[in-house]
Every structure is written in structure tokens, then in C-alpha cells.
Amino acid sequence: MTLPSTPARASRPNGQWAVDGHAPLNPNEVVKAADNGLNVRDRIENVYAAGGFDSIPADDLRGRLRWWGLYTQRKPGIDGGRTATLEPHELEDRYFMLRVRIDGGALTTEQLRTIGAISTEFGRGTADITDRQNIQIHWIRVEDVPEIWRRLEAVGLSTTETAGDVPRVILGSPVAGIAADEILDPTWAIGEIARRYLGDPELANLPRKFKTAITGHPSQDVQHQINDIAFVAVNHPELGPGFDLWVGGALSVAPRLGERLGAFVREEQVPDVWGAITSLFRDYGYRRLRTKARLKFLLADWGAAWFRTVLQDEFLGYELPDGPPPPRPTRAGDHVGVHAQKDGRFYVGAAPYVGRVSGPALTAVAELADAAGSHRIRLTPYQKLLVLDVPADQVAAVVTGLRAHGLEAEPSPFRQSTIACTGIEFCKFAIVETKATAIRAIDSLDERLMDQPGLAPISLHINGCPNSCARIQTADIGLKGQLVMDDDGAQVPGYQVHLGGGLASPDRDEAGLGRTVRGLKVTADGVPEYVERVVRRYVADRESTPTGVEPFGAWAHRAAEEALL
Q1: 28, 207 Cβ separation under 8 angstroms
Q2: What is the CA radius of gyration of the chain?
Q3: Which of 11, 15, 18 has the alpha carbon at shortest distance from 27?
Q4: Where do the Nitrite/Sulfite reductase ferredoxin-like domain residues begin and end (predicted)?
Q5: 10-residue stretch averages of pLDDT, the chain, 565 residues long
Q6: CA distances from 551 to 26, 87, 478 (A)
Q7: Residue burial 291-307, b: 16+ Cβ < 10 Å; e: rest
């Protein structure tokens, strides 16, 4: 085999440890070099919890506390026009958002009940299911953090490395181990990665955040194309079931879809391969500019072939066999609705409004599941919740009970397919509000489009800033928060529109980013009207296909600009 050529060396240092040494080249790297972020836990428990918010120095407050899932939240009353003009201390409140780590989205009812109680007692009842299978709680005081940790860890949960320049939560298939059509159950691999590497100081100073996804389900339900590393189950013609390896995906302001390395990974190799790629990123990732520090930028410069060579020769110590790509997904990956498990029981997937739940609601869901004979809950990367192991004679009761607590197993198309980030309510980076805007849009669109009963779900993703936590570039309709001009010439909250994005799905062979049309922006109040207009134009213009009708994403990419305005 002819090896690929070595990439040209940069003309100036990029902060790659393996090339340029460990000298920090920006303020964030200085902070990390001075003290590993994991070490701040001792100070939180023994100094800051006693001394309160004012006892926390800036390097810990706005840096290392993230290693333990703590972000200062936005001070109420600061409008989006001031987001980019105020200093961090002017934007932040004296309270924190706390992110609970839930690898694979897997919870017991005892764990869910614990989170619900923490939210109710310490977080004013707030709780959001994120699109990375975490739960976020707001209004947390540093004085309460040690007790919160004690309660979480007593039931096997933590907030370790849910933020910061570290390996973040591992996305996993919400139906792992229960789906009849599953290729592989990745539960062991997810658990082994967490056991070996979570909280490891050697991997707690990466160039930037590092996101992982693993699925064994043919729906490919973890958005593998937009993670730094992903393992997607495939059947190798000679070697049997295993995983196809992807690297270098991420969105934000410079979106890039991940690439296949063409390598086949056996189940027992997954933790070793994960550790090798994470170490490669640590040693070769760019650290001079944070805007260029994600793995996607290294992959863009190296190419997949050289990346695979370095991975195998320097970090893994053996070659991986070539393997097949995953086929087109078999069905939608949000798992909403009632579905049969392979053991004869059922799981019920339900949609809250854009991930917004509450502490009392989570507690009630835990009680509901227990009463039905289920003791397992799963969260999804689509801000949804699943109750597993429901006996057939309890399905109707679970569906009705979930509905009573704001979770709908039979949602409208937009209730099912809309997600939103935290937005200006709590996020210091946000420019506009998101959750309430999304909820109003869903309710309005349900009425506006009630004459379209057969309309397939069209994904609507709403983000409060350019960072794309709500994955706007891979939605049918993605809205990026910014200030826009209304019809009267006044500056108001609004969104830039992205159209036709999407990841691999039953409707499309390949992932693709949405298109933007110059000047296409919408006010926050005008979102329902715009979405209705563009959806009706799609319904009028879509073409028939051999398998049904043209998907929204395909139409949006071929439509004339005037049809999208």
C-alpha cells in the first residue's frame, strides 16, 4: 500500500503539542496549563461552597468550573443587542446552569427521580432535555453544589466533563439493547469508554470540546456526521457486525460534516480506538486559535487517509481493516410513538415542547414508569424521552400519563420535529429568545396547517446565536438568532433562515447543509407566518418520486429563491 504524503508543515506554530511543544499560545491555554480543570472540584467543595459566588476567582469561574458542568447563566433583563458589547462579568448572574451527564441517554427511574428532586429543591423546578442526551438545570447556587453532587453520585450519575475542553457526553442509541432490528448493542462500549477515560487527567486538556456518538441501530439515531468521532454499526461481509468509523464532524459558525475513515472497528476495539483518536486530537489538535481548535480543522488539513495513517501508526499500533459504509437509515431516529421491543414489551417515545420539562414532571414520569412496571428511561439526541419495558396492557396508561405531564407520544408534526437551544433566557451567548418562540410557533403552525393532515414532519431548529447548538444547518428549516429590521425599520429579535439541511435519513442518502438566501431573514414574531408560507409553497411545488413525494430538503435546494422568500 502506498502511504499518503505528509501534510505540509505550517509556517507558524499552531500550538500542536506533538509539533510545537506545550507552550500555551492563548489565554485559555494559559489557564489550562496552570491547573487541570478537574482539580477545581476540591476548591468548589471546600472553598467556594463556603465562601459563595464572590469567593470564586475569574479563571475558575469562567474556565475550570465547566469541567464539572457549571456555567454562569445570563443575568435577567439584558437584551440581545448588548450580548456582544458587555464583559462577561456584566452578562453573568450569580447562579449557574448545571449539566448532568447521561452517557447513552440511559437512566433508571431512581436516577430520574433524583434529578427531578434536585431540580425542584435547588433549581426552581427548571429542567431541559438537551439534544446531547443531557439534562440541564438552572438557578443553581455554588453553595448547593456539593450536596447536589452527593445525591447524583449516590445513584451513579455525575456532572464530570459535561463542559470544557474535554470528552463530552457520549451519545448512544436510545433503543440500545431493546430494538429487534438492532445490529449491535453499543451499551458495553459506551460504558467501557466512560469507565476508562471519564475524569482521566491525561485527556482533560484537549484543544477544544470533543463529541462522541455510537449507535448500533439502523436508524443511525445519533447524528454521527456532526460529531468529532462516531461509530456506526454495519455488517462486514467477512468479519460480521462491527462499526464504521467517522471523524471530524461539527457545526457552529464553520460547519463541516464528518468523514469516513473507511476503517472497520470490532466491538471490543471501540474503547481502544476511541482513546487513540482522542489522544491524537490532544497531541496534534490546533491550540493557537480557539476558532480553529476543533478536530474538523485538523482533518481538513490532513485528509482522511493521512489521519488514518497517523492513528494506526502512532496511537493504535495496528491497522484496522477496511469496511463498508452504512446503508441508508431504515426509519426516523427520534423514536417517538409506541414501538415493540424484541422481548414483546413496548417502549413509548414522547415529545416535550423543545426539550422543556420540569423537576416535578421528571419526578412524575419516574413514578408513572414504576407504576407501569418499567424502571428504565432513555433520552434522545432530539430532545425526546422514552419509557422502556412497558407491558402491552400498560401502554395506553403510559401514553395518557405522559401527556398529563407535558410529554406527547402522538405529537403533531411540528411538536415532533422542532428543537431549540437554551436561548437568551439563560445563555450568555444568545442574541434572541428560543424556547418560547418555538413553543408559540408549534402551537400556531398546528392551527395554520391543520388542513394538511398528511404532512410529514419538517424539522424546525431554532438557535439563539450563530453557534448552532440546535443544529440549524442540518434542519429542514434552521433559524439562526440575530437582530433584524421589521417592516417599520425598527431593530427587533429575529433569525437568518437556513433551508434544506439534513443528516442521512430514510429520505436522503447523504447528509447535507442547508442553503441560505441573501436577505432571507424573519422576525421572531413572524416565524409561524414564514414557516406556513414556505411549507405551503413546498406542498404546491413538490414532485412525485418512485417512493412517494419529494422531501422538503430536496425541494428547498432546487427551488427558485422567490419560492423561499
Answers
A1: no
A2: 23
A3: 15
A4: 90-155, 339-404
A5: 62 94 97 98 98 98 98 97 95 98 98 98 98 98 98 98 98 98 98 98 98 98 97 98 98 97 98 98 98 98 98 98 96 96 98 98 98 98 98 98 98 97 97 98 96 92 97 98 94 97 89 95 98 97 88 96 95
A6: 45, 44, 16
A7: ebbbbbbbbebbebebb
